[in-house]
Every structure is written in C-alpha cells, then in structure tokens.
UniProtKB/TrEMBL annotation:
Lineage start: Bacteria, Pseudomonadati, Pseudomonadota, Gammaproteobacteria, Oceanospirillales
Every Acetyl-coenzyme A synthetase N-terminal domain range: 4-57
Alphabetized NCBIfam families for the sequence: PRK00174.1 (NF001208)
Protein name, entry field: Acyl-CoA synthetase
Family as reported in the entry's similarity comment: Belongs to the ATP-dependent AMP-binding enzyme family.
Organism: Bisbaumannia pacifica
GO molecular function terms attached to this record: propionate-CoA ligase activity
Coiled coil: none
Cellular component annotations (GO), alphabetically ordered: intracellular organelle lumen
Domain AMP-binding enzyme C-terminal stretches: 509-588
InterPro entries: ACAS_N, AMP-bd_C, AMP-bd_C_sf, AMP-binding_CS, AMP-dep_synth/lig_dom, ANL_N_sf
Domain AMP-dependent synthetase/ligase: 63-446
Length: 637
C-alpha cells in the first residue's frame, strides 16, 4: 500500500488514534485526553479537554523554538511601493502590544472583534491579537459594501471594530472609514470603540468613538496569551449561503491548529523556515488558513501580497515574487492565471525570472479548468495541483498530497480525498453512486479537526444546511464523481451559490437586492460561464404591472443597486427586463433551465412548465444581448 493509502485508511478507520498523533505536533497548555466526542446532535468535537492558544502556538512557541530572528511575515505592496519584513520576535511583540491595546478597550475572552482591513501586516497582527486574548475575530473582506459590513456587525455583535483608513485597488484608493461609518449607521449593534490604522494614501477623520492604532499601541502594555479550550471559537467567517443572510462559519482553536499544521506538512510538503505564498486575501478562508495561520503554525514564513496578478505592474508579478522571496510553494485561484494568460499568452514574463526554488503550484477557489491546467503544466517546471475545499472545511478535502506522496495528476480532477475526509458521492436516494456517475458529494461523519463547529448563533441553520440531507453525512453543496482510479472530479455547486473570480457569491442574495426595488415584481439571478472569471451573475427581472418607466434606465439602476448593497465584488453587470420568466405550474422559476440556455447547451422543455412560450422569449432576449453562450443553445429534438 502507498504512503498516501496507509495514511488515508488509518485516518478513516482509527480517527482518534490518527488525530491524537497529529495533536502532539502543536504545543498544549493541557494536552487533550479525550480526542473525539460527539455533541447532542451527533457533531464531532475534537480534543475537548485540551487547553492551548493559537497565537501561542504560532508565535511565542516558535520564538521559544529558536525562530525569533526568522522572518514570520514578508509584506510586498506594489500598490504603495512598500516592502516590510517582520521576524517572529517582532511579530510576537507587536501582537502582544496590540492585544494589550484591545484589552484596554475592554476586550476579553469570548468577545467578538470585527476586522475590516486590506492586505497589510497589521491585519495579521489584529487577528493574532484577538486569538491571544481568546477573543473571536470576524474579518470582513474589503470589497464588501456598507450593507454587508452592517449585516456582519449585527450578527457578530463585536465589542470593537478594527479598520484601516483605506484599501488600495489598481486604479483607485478606497476610503474604508466612510464605509465603516455608513455600516455603523445602518447596523443596530453599536461597538464600544473602533480602532483605525491610518494609511498615508487616505487618512481618516476620527470621531470620539475612534482610536488611532499607533497612539493606542504606544500606550499599551503587552498582553500574555490566554489559555482557551480547544473547542473555544477562534473566529467567525461569513460566507454566502443560498439565502440573503450570510452564514457565520465558526472555527475552533485546537482542531484548527492541528489540522492546519498537518496540512502544511502532508499536503503542501512545507518545512519550517521555508516561504509559503498564498495570493488570496485575509477576508477569505484561504487567507485565514494559508496566509495567516497555517504557515506560522508550521514555523514557515508567509508572504503577504497587496497587489493583483496583473496590472501591479504587469503579468510577471507572481514570477517576480516567487524569485525575490524564494517561494517554495505557491497557491492562488485559477482565475488569477486566466488573467495572466490573457495578458501574456506565451508566458514570456516567466523568462525574466528564476523560479527554480519553487516546488509546487496549488490552485483552489474554483475548479482548475483543463485549458488553464494544460497552459500552466506546459509553462511551469513543477507539479500543478488542483485541490478542493470550502470556507466550511477550512482546509483541503481533496488534493494531491505532495508531503505524503506526489501522485500523477489528471486534468480537471482534485485528485484524492485527503486523510481525515471520508468523501462519498451519493445518488438521489442516498446510495453510493458507482464510479463515473455524478452525484452529491458528501463527507461522512466525523468531519476531521479544523472543520466548522457551527453557524454563529444559528444551530438550526447548521443542521438544516449541512446535516439534514443524508444521515451521518455533511453535505458539501458540490456535485461530482469518482473515476475508475478513485480520482475525484468536482463539477460545480448543486445550490444557488456561484463562483465569480474565485469569490463565492449567493444568487439568492442578489435576488433579494433586485426584488427590493419598487418597480420589480419578480426576478432570477443566474450564474453564466465566463472565460476570465469562471462565472458571472446575470439578473432577469419582471416589472410590476403599471411600470411605464424606461427599461434601460431601470436595468442600469438595478446594476448600481447591487454594487452599492453588496459591493463591486458581486460583478453583476447585466440585468435584463423580461416580460415573463419560465416557471413550473406550481410557480417555481426554472433557474436551472435558464442556466442551461446561458451555457449554450441543448435543453429539453419540461412537462411541468406553465407557459413554454416564456422560455423561448427569454432565450431570444439572452441571445440578443449575447449573454454567455446563449446563441448556441438549442431546444432538444
Ligand atoms: N476592496 C475593494 N474593492 C475590491 C477589492 C477589495 N479588496 N477586491 C476587488 N474589488 C473590486 C475591484 O476593484 C473590481 O471593481 P470594478 O468593478 O470597479 O473594476 C470589483 O471589485 C471586481 O473585482 P475582481 O472580480 O477581483 O475583478 P478584477 O478585474 O479587479 O480582477 C482578477 C480580476 C482575476 C485579477 C482578480 O479577481 C483576482 O486576482 N482573483 C483571484 C481571486 C482570489 O484570490 N480568490 C481567493 C480564493 S483562492
Ligand atoms: P469558498 O467557501 O469561498 O472557499 O468556496 C467553496 C466552493 O468553491 C466550493 O464549494 C466549490 O464549489 C468551489 N471550489 C473551491 N475549490 C474548488 C476546486 N478545486 N474544484 C472545484 N470547485 C472548487
């Protein structure tokens, strides 16, 4: 049996023994004696009687191990022209100081802190400072509009909000403070205080509620690490579900640290002292796991990049970073490489750089489409590895486990389930689907350490969204299949979640925004294929009887409304006013059928359709706008 197979079997057949062994790799104040327990609802709880602190494991412990002078964080910001190096000792000291500052504002164990910051080292400092105090951080991605920030503030109810004065996009400086002020004017919850990191590109005006980061830190005494239970929450990270209300995914301290440490070694094959580069954002799960926590828990150096794959300044940016910082493993989303390929189809920019130190290129956030896989595979002299995971799992469910054993890759597949994840593909009746047959991808209980422990303040939703569909299984929401060799192919969501440029968005949420316009009677938002971003949302709306305004103006107004409410990141650029929407006789909009048309596929007209002519009308309108591949779609027969 191969090394991978041995580990996989061990983790599935003897989960307690397997994870007890892995738990020894991180420092505990009180080592766990109970490895796995199930709560009343049958959900796994790991290391329940262990005590530790994630900040201690990632910083203080590493300094004690002799890594004080090693770089913990390397910051490279082409949008400001700045670079910075923070050693483990400097990072520990800055975190301890900022933790002291938060404590001075009354933050204690269990309190929530919302962090609204771009890709600056202080974002990591703020996250670790919360962890140090046993406080629970909730980072909100900078591309979200005030309304989205307000929704998260109301749900998390933070004692303090930490923000930067601005973020910097390629072509503009985005003032964050007015966004925060607007969010706080919309939210019902009021934090006790806000801390603002002033950046020179756009300084913020502070009110009596606000504290200047530098001034606060200058007066603060360093705080020590507070011991927490392994099962205590480390963070809440909101992600899109099928409704307008985002889900607050809760992650614990102990299981998370053990799982991330294991993954850095077994999946990415990283050794302490090496540089890991994940080109994501601290606002997403990839940023949490593999910019902030994973690399430092393993004693590696993390490269924090405030820039884009292209235009900062060009399509050679990633190659430059890999060379300059001797990056060993690089991780980004396929869409980033599609953007690079568009600007540099021959990969010429790579010729200017020596990337011989690189060992592997990992991709996730969306499926690595075979054309992009082949382009990369021909271009770079290292394994190109697609791996599949979600905000909920916090670390990869399926991957080519480089650290255990590199196996041959197959284009379009995320390779094998990772040890700890008992992945199965089920048919409609809940039976295991045969090889090469698509079905619903589930993970059998127990979920391994590091996966979500619940939805913040909403246990019912946790159960309904993930656990209710099939007994003893976690529903991933993805569809896919295993091939004859046991390779897993993840083919896309089975719900209303779409993936735009590696960002997860809810069409249901966009529908709520469109539907709230006084002129809109009904609407549907569907994801259509896009060569650069993977998918793009398109809105179809029916106006209320009596609407006699200008339809083009309404469409533009609706596009602007989504941008203002959700944020630029929603990328909804097309809304069509249509006379009718195809529905079943019971009134359900046939969204899947609309997607089939937008994707240019042959479509059958279901017998349950109420008014077949409505489908033809919408198809004509989509074709006239040249939406997706709609001009190639044909009714079957
Ligand atoms: N703060 C504010 N606005 C932001 C933002 C942020 N942090 N990030 C993105 N936006 C804005 C962009 O400026 C853009 O605005 P525009 O409509 O005015 O142009 C909009 O949101 C859409 O952004 P995006 O989808 O990122 O498109 P883009 O054209 O700016 O860049 C890519 C395209 C492919 C280069 C970019 O999406 C990318 O790097 N993707 C990788 C994604 C990733 O790492 N995902 C994490 C999962 S691994
Ligand atoms: P997020 O929670 O934002 O990380 O998004 C998770 C979703 O992105 C998954 O449920 C998948 O639909 C999709 N996804 C992420 N990585 C992959 C991958 N490697 N292959 C296929 N889909 C992926």
């Amino acid at each position: 049996m191969s090394h991978y197979q041995t580990s996989y079997r061990h983790a599935i057949e003897q989960p307690e023994a397997f994870w007890a062994e892995q738990a020894k790799r991180i420092p505990w104040f009180t080592p766990p004696s109970t490895i796995l327990e199930y709560d009343d609802q049958g959900h796994a709880r790991w290391f329940v009687d262990g005590e530790m602190n994630t900040c201690f494991a990632a910083l203080d412990h590493q300094v004690a191990e002799g890594r004080g002078d090693q770089a913990a964080v390397l910051w490279d910001s082409p949008v400001t022209g700045e670079k910075r190096r923070l050693s483990y000792r400097e990072m520990r000291d800055q975190v301890a100081r900022f933790a002291g500052a938060l404590a001075g504002l009354g933050v204690t164990k269990g309190d929530r802190v919302v962090i609204y910051m771009p890709m600056v080292p202080e974002a990591l400092v703020a996250m670790y400072a919360c962890a140090r105090l046993g406080a629970v951080h909730s980072v909100v991605f900078g591309g979200f509009a005030p309304h989205e920030l307000a929704v998260r503030i109301d749900d998390a109810q933070p004692k303090v909000v930490v923000a930067a004065s601005c973020g910097i996009e390629v072509d503009r400086v985005i003032a964050y403070k007015p966004i925060l002020d607007e969010a706080l004017s919309q939210s019902r919850h009021r934090p006790d205080a806000c801390v603002v990191l002033q950046r020179e590109q756009s300084r913020a005006e502070l009110t009596p509620r606000d504290h200047d980061w530098q001034a606060l830190v200058a007066e603060a005494a360093p705080a020590e690490c507070v011991p927490v239970k392994a099962t205590d929450p480390l963070y809440i990270l909101y992600t899109s579900g099928t409704t307008g209300k985002p889900k607050g995914v809760v992650r614990d301290h102990g299981g998370h640290a053990v799982a991330l440490h294991y993954s850095m070694e077994a999946i990415y094959g990283m050794q302490p002292g090496e540089v890991f580069f994940s080109a994501s954002d601290v606002g997403w799960v990839v940023g949490h796991s593999y910019i902030v926590y994973g690399p430092l828990l393993r004693g590696c150096t993390t490269l924090v990049y405030e820039g884009k794959p292209v235009r900062t300044p060009d399509a050679g940016a990633f190659w430059r970073l890999i060379e300059e910082y001797d990056v060993k493993v690089f991780f980004t989303a396929p869409t980033a490489f599609r953007a690079i390929k568009k600007e540099d189809p021959e990969g010429r920019r790579l010729e200017d750089h020596d990337i011989s130190g690189l060992r592997a290129l990992f991709l996730a956030g969306e499926r690595l489409d075979p054309p992009t896989f082949h382009w990369l595979d021909d271009l770079v002299p290292v394994p190109v590895i697609d791996h599949w995971w979600q905000t909920e799992t916090g670390w990869p469910i399926a991957a080519n486990p480089l650290g255990l054993e590199a196996v041959p890759t197959k284009a379009g597949s995320a390779t094998y389930p990772v040890p700890g994840f008992n992945v199965q593909v089920l048919d409609r009746d809940g039976e295991v689907a045969p090889a090469n047959t698509q079905g619903s991808v589930v993970i059998r209980q127990p979920l391994p350490p590091g996966c979500l422990t619940g939805i913040w303040r909403d246990p019912q939703r946790f159960h309904a969204a993930y656990m209710a569909a099939y007994p003893n299984c976690y529903l991933t929401g993805d569809g896919g299949y295993f091939d004859d060799d046991g390779y897993l192919f993840i083919m896309g969501r089975t719900d209303d979640v779409i993936n735009v440029a590696g960002h997860r968005l809810s069409t249901g949420e966009m529908e709520e925004v469109l539907g709230s316009h006084p002129a809109v009677a009904e609407c549907a938002v569907i994801g259509i294929q896009d060569a650069l971003k993977g998918q793009l949302p398109v809105g179809l709306v029916i106006t209320k009887d009596g609407f006699d305004g200008d339809e083009t103006a309404l469409e533009a107004e609706l596009v602007a409304r989504v941008r203002q409410t959700i944020g630029a990141i929603a990328c909804l650029k097309e809304v069509l006013v249509v006379p009718r929407l195809p529905k079943t006789r019971s009134g359900k909009i046939l969204r899947k059928l609309l997607r089939t048309i937008a994707d240019g596929e042959e479509y059958g007209i279901p017998s349950t359709i109420d008014d077949p002519a409505s489908l033809q009308e919408v198809h004509e309108q989509m074709r006239a706008r040249d939406l997706g591949q709609s001009s190639q779609a044909r009714p079957a027969g």
